[in-house]
Amino acid sequence: MMLDRPPSRAALASKPGEHAAAIDDVVIGGGFFGCSLALYLRQTLGRRVVLLEAGSDLLLRASHSNQARVHNGYHYPRSLLTALRSRVNYPRFLEQFRDCVDQAFDKYYAVSRNFSKVTANQFRSFCTTIGAPITPAPAAIRKLFDPDLIEAVFTVQECAFDAVKLRHKMAALLAQHGVDVRCGTEAVRVRARADSRLLVECADGDRGHEIAAKRVYNCTYSRTNRLLASSSLPLIPLKHEVTEIALVEVPDAIKHLGITVMCGPFFSVMPFPSRGLHSFSHVRYTPHCQWQDVPDQPYMDPYAVLANRVPQSNFPRMVLDARRYMPILAGCRHVDSLMEVKTVLPRSDMDDSRPILLRRDQGLPNLDCIMGAKIDNVFDMIESVAGTAAVVGRESA
Ligand SMILES: Cc1cc2nc3c(=O)[nH]c(=O)nc-3n(C[C@H](O)[C@H](O)[C@H](O)COP(=O)(O)OP(=O)(O)OC[C@H]3O[C@@H](n4cnc5c(N)ncnc54)[C@H](O)[C@@H]3O)c2cc1C
């Protein structure tokens, strides 16, 4: 159960049998990042780890409700570092999570004649620079696009991940390596204890308890600042958007295709493996509203912002625009929409970069905040935590 307000201190008590000295690390947030970090701490460093997840299961929030693209660099012509990190991490992701990805579709990137931030030539030479495979798309594919609006179409190598398979895989690995996973348990506040351990106040249902640990990792993504706010700690400037990824059935002729028109106010349609559908997103219509967490300003819980919105789909607008470029998209049938909060560092707006956030000792010694901007960032995150990262496009302080 999610609590709007933390329980009173009196309602909190240590769980029976909980030995304060027994736990090294508490990881808060069972998304892909929290799970991966907990696994690393346990498996590689041999630490005793508790993973707290407020929801009923792992990977139910942003790690599930996204576009499912495993980035291979193509998406980031405006941020060479992000593109290059994607190129490094793509094969690593495929190697470790091959059983969780769908590679059985052909992927195409198209460049618009108007409003695009890159031309076809610029895109081709950018791909050459980052070493990303690119060839002109076959004529049968080019015919799907309006040649008056689309300058060029390229065949590229990119795949999609299945978030449900990823959830099962992470849960099995966590169990295998002995991470203590507690779903349905929300961390409501963190404070320091006299012996330099941190105390995490938790709520599970109507009960509360405390966990003492040497180090606490806040991996709650859009809710990073919620824990900080409720612990009276300084906030990190973050930008949030309520987003909509539409899930659609596409016409048979494009069932085995993934399409992205870039880079500007365009769209993507690509397989969404865990539902056997395609995701449909549009740069203009996927974001429904946005706001920023600003230090010293009143704080809004992103989950509450999302929960309090009247759900209304932007899919009709997405398809109305996209079908001008690809008339066949008029035949898409809207099945569902995934609404989720997307959180990025404010600077990402300027250069479209996707660095990880790693804040050590955020307001309290041994309280670290970690946020990744895309799934494959997870390798950069682990290297940063391990202190072995060379250049990872990291926002740290
Ligand atoms: C619309 C959209 C499209 C995207 N598209 C892509 C894409 O195509 N490819 C890509 O690589 N990335 C994409 N991303 C980014 C990617 O989804 C995120 O970078 C990634 O999922 C973040 O993982 P996480 O574990 O940090 O967050 P989450 O998966 O959100 O995990 C955070 C967890 O913390 C839990 N939690 C929150 N508060 C508490 C608390 N107080 N106590 C305990 N638990 C708590 C939540 O329940 C949640 O499970 C997209 C994101 C969005 C929103």
Mind explaining what this structure looks like?
With 397 residues, this protein is an alpha/beta fold. The chain folds into two domains: 168 residues, FAD/NAD(P)-binding domain (3-Layer(bba) Sandwich); 179 residues, D-Amino Acid Oxidase, Chain A, domain 2 (2-Layer Sandwich), CATH 3.30.9.10. Strands 5, 6, 7, 14, 15, 16, 17, 18 and 19 form a nine-stranded mixed sheet that branches. A seven-stranded mixed sheet has the order 9-2-1-13-21-20-22, with helices on one face. Helix 1 packs parallel to helix 5. The N terminus is likely disordered. Bound molecules: flavin-adenine dinucleotide. The site of flavin-adenine dinucleotide has 37 residues, from helix 1, strand 2, strand 10, strand 14 and strand 19. Flavin-adenine dinucleotide (FAD) binds next to helix 1, strand 2, strand 10, strand 14 and strand 19.
Query: Given the helix and strand composition, which structural class is it?
Result: alpha/beta
The domain tally reads 2
CATH superfamily of the largest domain: D-Amino Acid Oxidase, subunit A, domain 2
What is the β-strand count? 22
Small-molecule binders here are: flavin-adenine dinucleotide
Tell me what portion of residues adopts beta-strand conformation: 25-35%
Distance between the termini: 33 Å
Main sheet attributes: strand count, strand direction, barrel closure = 9 strands, mixed
Identify the CATH class of the largest domain. Alpha Beta
